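#struct-help
A.M.: can someone run this one for me? Single chain, 187 residues.
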Amino acid sequence: ALNGEARKAAKEALQTAHDNGESGKTTDSKYYNATEAPKSAYDQALTGAETTLSNDNATLADYQAAKKAIDDAYGKLDGQATNKEGLEAAIAKVNTAKGDGTYDNSSVTAKSALDAALEVAKNADNDTNASQATVDDATKKLTDALAGLDNTQAKDIQAPEALVPVPAANKDSVIQSDKDAIVANVK
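D.P.: on it. Structure tokens below:
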């Protein structure tokens, strides 16, 4: 009976390790930021645990070996915590551009691209489980969209060659040729 209790406890420990491993795929940066080889080995250990858990004839040693495989594979995961410093700096640059007129003087297309990239960037920044790849991608898209503001409508406008004075006394008395000259200079 003692061996039956140990077997049951080992099965429960394996089930817990397996469940924690599966949920950790989306919540543990050590997994989702890991390189492919250790990630694959960990996935295989979890799959092996499923097989062992579904085997009614599994022994105490089987449960212990499957749990050890999960623990060993987890120990080899090389993912680091997601670094969001670059993303947060890019978001700050966008907020500055929106406040200094660069944004307002940009084309509708450039503004739309920046707004969309900023939304994605903010979502990635607020996501506590965002992978490094997701953060890096959002940072690149935001930086590219911000660079797109450099080709602004305002920079394409040229100053008029000669200013045409408008009589201050009665603006309604401007003759048609002066009106045409003003319109031509504004274009």
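A.M.: thanks! The two ends are 94 Å apart (CA to CA).
D.P.: also worth noting: The longest helix spans residues 2-27.
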